[in-house]
Amino acid sequence: xxxxxxxxxxxxxxxxxxxxxxxxxxxxxxxxxxxxxxxxxxxxxxxxxxxxxxxxxxxxxxxxxxxxxxxxxxxxxxxxxxxxxxxxxxxxxxxxxxxxxxxxxxxxxxxxxxxxxxxxxxxxxxxxxxxxxxxxxxxxxxxxxxxxxxxxxxxxxxxxxxxxxxxxxxxxxxxxxxxxxxxxxxxxxxxxxxxxxxxxxxxxxxxxxxxxxxxxxxxxxxxxxxxxxxxxxxxxxxxxxxxxxxxxxxxxxxxxxxxxxxxxxxxxxxxxxxxxxxxxxxxxxxxxxxxxxxxxxxxxxxxxxxxxxxxxxxxxxxxxxxxxxxxxxxxxxxxxxxxxxxxxxxxxxxxxxxxxxxxxxxxxxxxxxxxxxxxxxxxxxxxxxxxxxxxxxxxxxxxxxxxxxxxxxxxxxxxxxxxxxxxxxxxxxxxxxxx
Length: 435
Hints:
Elements: H1 8-17, E1 25-26, E2 43-44, E3 65-75, E4 87-97, E5 105-108, E6 113-118, E7 129-134, H2 152-166, E8 173-177, H3 184-205, E9 227-234, H4 237-249, E10 257-261, E11 279-283, H5 289-302, H6 306-311, E12 321-327, H7 333-344, E13 347-360, E14 363-366, E15 380-395, H8 405-408, H9 410-413, E16 415-417, E17 422-424
Parallel strand pairs: 1-15, 8-9, 8-11, 9-10, 11-12
Antiparallel strand pairs: 2-5, 3-4, 3-13, 3-14, 4-5, 4-6, 6-7, 12-15, 13-15, 16-17
Helix pairs in contact: 2-3, 5-7
């Protein structure tokens, strides 16, 4: 089934992940080198060979062809999540020959596409497409993609999508995404979680008919009924416009969607009671020590109290929670952990999420053929990578009640209970309390 000549570890990954269809195999032909330009303004895909090596590989004719770059992402079995391997994200981009730059050079064409696929498939298959979106990453009319598989920010977004889909119990009630930027993490995470929830319900009621044992997302209703609304927030108007554009492309019902300006880096001077949410999510936010303090403040004051949820338990099965995912190398995540636990007495669980990424060699189709013809072509593995992310799930202490924040939260008074005595939590340089 699998042919491996140069990369047996990739084949082992493929056997485990069951990502193959139409003979996916590990092969690194010399005419398909790694991309040399991170911005893909003009990428030389096919390098000319010397006379000695000209017989090994010839430069293919790419005139009149559409060239596709595809990358698959999934969470490994070692990830600390509720459900593993039930969802896969494909990142797909398109190129055209760049005749102005010379032979073998490409230029990006069109926008990046993200595809949610069924990950619960038989060995040797690629799961069915569940949801497809051509994403907006800029409001510029001529904006295009920057390649596939080499964008750290997009990879973090995909990690959050898979994390939310793998923990679907949290996507209930009212959900807020902080610092949403494109809004893709919250939108596609909620859609993926909805697909898994729908499939779980179907498995409990369906008969032993294999035709029913697949994930489905009902057309026009990509979110579950348990999710009352999802609010995409950011402090930059440009990102709010992007989030709104992607929300419209996702066909999320307007009754379940809000886009609002929210600055989590600065303390609001308004005395109005903040809106409360059942779930708050954040994907790889960039912050320093002081900004981590303000993020913790935003989370603590906007997350529903455990006691309130317990009194209305029938509305949401999972307790209110703040979900945060970022690369494991992010040392500043410890600041956020400290402020949540000591500053607001929240209960925090940390874990690890391993994101597996499979980059395939380019595929070509004549411009006259539809993109669906890609299913008839072989997928050739170019590169396999793993990235470790750290997850954080924070919940309010059961003793905290809404409206008692100024009394219950040590951060509001600048003190917390230490083992030996009451001690200032991070005093200002002049010795005053840090409010």
